[in-house]
Amino acid sequence: MSTTPDISTDITTDISTVVIAGASGFIGSHLVRRFTEAGVEVRTIGRAGPAVWGDMQGIAAALDGADLLVNLAGRSVNCRYNKRNADVIFSSRVDTTEELGRALAQCRMGGGTPPPVWINASTGTIYRHATDRPQSEDDGELGTGFSVSVARAWERAQADADVPGVRKVALRISIVLGPGSVMTPLTVLARTGLGGPMGTGSQKFSWVHLEDLFRAVVFIAVTPSLSGPVNVAAPEVVTNAQLMAAVRQRLHVPAGLRTPAWLLGLGGMIIRTEAELVLKSRWVSPRRLLDAGFRFTYPTLGPALDDILARDRVAAPEPVRAD
Q1: For the chain, N or C: smaller number of CB within 10 Å?
Q2: Considering the domain boundaries, does residue 7 fall inside one?
Q3: Is the pLDDT of residue 68 over 50?
């Protein structure tokens, strides 16, 4: 396929039914809405509804006859990585992925028809702290530390699932920009005069617009050549300093105080999050998507921020979920 499907009209020719696990979060709720708007039947797997975690029969039934499975389940990483939180972050990703693998197999063994495509969330954070060159699927170097260990186990759980005939894609998602989510603290910092560079400000910031993430999911679903790890990040990477300057510009804030790394560490302890979330240099290249013919609606940061911040549409922060 050489062009991106026009998902603004009708995609039901290729996708008539989609199953979304973890549908209540920031990304999942957007996918549910956009698929529904396109006339696609959406079935969900979560903590409530017809198909809930732990109910293998119910999950297998939800999968039967669907065209696509998208798994986004996982507790938010916006927290301190103490043992309790770390265990939940790990299990909410790995255990649910393993459960979906078993449910896909049971669906087939029970005489059903499992979806031919399984897109499982992963993260661009799986790559090392990179300031020298972009990290693509083919030449990217995996990093170390807790977040990388979780990402490796997450992808391994999908890869190890014995589901013949199901094309598996690990979606290495960069930081997603949309109304609410990460945009809320960024705009709050800018408006209070604290929207300057964080740390050195030179760390790379790979991002993707929420709508382009949805379009990438559709594109991958109908592009048989795409399997294994696929990076989802806008082609334009910026530095943290450039990001904050762009946010300030659109909010008409002339300047912002720099936040040194040590203060970010202290602040993280106070607000119960990790400084790594803003200090790690993420330079993710969407090589496989681009080579397959995908075209981003928002390839550069400026228009993406203009769309997100238009009419002051920044939503309230999303609640922490553990689908």
Answers
A1: N
A2: no
A3: yes
The answer to whether position 79 is within a domain reads: yes
The enclosing domain of 106 has a CATH number of: 3.40.50.720
Instruction: Break the chain down into helix, strand, coil percent, rounded to 5.
Output: 40, 15, 45
Contact at 8 Å (CB) between 105 and 160? Answer: no
Q: Residues 118-152: pLDDT tens digits?
A: 999 999 999 999 999 999 999 999 999 999 999 99
- As separate numbers, helices (DSSP H) first and strands (DSSP E) second, the chain gives 11, 11
Whether this model's pTM surpasses 0.85: yes
241 phi/psi in degrees, rounded to 5? -65, -40
Q: Which of 59, 77, 78 is nearest to 69 (CA)?
A: 59
CA 17/CA 38 separation, integer angstroms = 11
How far apart are alpha carbons 105 and 113 in whole angstroms?
10
208 in a structural domain: yes
For the CA atoms of 25, 29, 30, 31, the dihedral, rounded to the nearest 10 degrees, stands at 110
Residue keyed to tokens 């960069």:
174
**Structural domain total, the chain:** 1
Q: Provide mean pLDDT across the span 243-256.
A: 94
Write out pLDDT tens, residues 198-220: 999 999 999 999 999 999 999 99
The pairing of beta strand 204-205 with beta strand 238-239: antiparallel
- CB atoms near residue 290 (< 10 Å): 15
In a domain, 2, yes or no: no
